[in-house]
Amino acid sequence: MIDEKELIIALKSQNECERAFRVLVNLYKERLYWHIRKIVLNHEDTDDILQNTFIKIYKNIHKFEEKSKLYTWMYRIATNESITFLNKKSKKKNITIEEVKNQLIENLESDIYFEGNQIQILFQKAINTLPQKQQLVFNMKYFEDHTYENLSEILETSVGGLKSSYHIAVKKITAYIKLNETI
Amino acid sequence: MKRRENIDEFKVPTNYFDEFENHLLNKINEEVLPKNIGFKTPPGYFNKLDAKIKRKNNSKSKEGKLIPVVSKKKFIYAASLAAIVILVFSVIKDTTRFYTLEEIEISNIENFINEGNIQLKQHEISILFTDEILNNMTSNQSRLSGNQLENYLLENINDLNALLPY
Questions:
Q1: Could you list the mean pLDDT of each consecutive 10-residue stretch along chain A, which spans 183 residues?
Q2: How far is B27 from chain A, CA to nearest CA, in Å?
């Protein structure tokens, strides 16, 4: 078990930062990858955002004030990078983020790194009907199994607010799937 | 004899029983949802990731600082001169042309205000609102759908508990 405090000290020291960074990447690469992938949906974009996230972490670790847990801070950077990516894409194409995500979902069928079926595509469409923040809450709670307390730190929202948001999200998604799966 | 429903030594989390119904309904609803999303990665992707990040980080560091061909000072002089010339010509050329409010795009007005060209205080804005406008605004609220209102609140209100009645 790697002690977070020791890891932060090593990351901030000049001699050990490279070794510590390698440890950090190995510890969090998969978790952050899947977190980003659920937001931007395709592998290539996820790969790009994940690398940028780790580079940002490496370059800004000395600014990390340890007011939150290291992994909370990293998740926040990954989330911001992913949303910034979607915003840039929507501005470039002059369409809304929802439309950008709809295009990404449409592309899933021909994506070689997607092996889901029609129900999973419908599931993505249902998630995309939620407001951006509610999508984050749903994905992080349903797939990643974060506690509400952790989510509260990452998304800077109260535990009560998150619980209501998740409850509403599940209701909306199941209603959407029930309505559309027979069509 | 009355049966004791709870034992003093055992406690439950705050609001456990109030929230139990919601938790249970969520669990039932979740059952119909897929358990995975069908995404996969290229073979060996995570093994090669460290080296990829290192390469990208090094190449970003090596990009270095660009030294401009024209010095900053010279550029400022040239830009100032160009700005003065454009300003003089536009003032001379366009003094007789007046725009009516209808001819100006609302987005241009919004940008003008957003850029801080007009500084209005709250009371200055409030005197522009007549009772009739305020009444119209109130009646317009009823045109918002429940979904629109819910989405707005979820996006903009951090603490949803604040909206719940005690």
A1: 85 89 93 95 95 94 89 95 95 92 91 91 94 94 90 93 92 92 68
A2: 9
B113 is written with which tokens?
């205000």
- The DSSP symbol for B12 reads -
ipTM: 0.80
Q: Which residues contact A13 (CB under 8 A, 6 or more apart)?
A: A20
Higher local confidence (pLDDT), B142 or B102: B102
Residue contact B37–A117, C-beta within 8 A: no
* Residues in chain B, total: 166
Annotated domain spans of chain A: 1-95, 116-183
Chain A hits for B41, CB-CB cut-off 8 Å, are: 33, 43, 113
Do A53 and B56 touch, CB atoms closer than 8 A? no
Q: Is B158–A158 a contact, with Cβ atoms under 8 angstroms apart?
A: yes
In this structure, are residues A166 and A137 in contact, taking their beta carbons and an 8 Å threshold? yes
pLDDT of B166: 41
Rounded CA-CA distance B142/A71 in Å is 44
Q: Write b or e for each residue in B91-115: b if 16 or more Cβ atoms lie within 10 A of its Cβ, otherwise e.
A: eeeeeeeeeeeeeeeeeeeeeeeee
Classify domain A116-183 by CATH number: 1.10.10.10
> B39 forms bridges with which residues in the sheet?
A114
Considering the domain A1-95 in this protein, what is its CATH number?
A: 1.10.1740.10
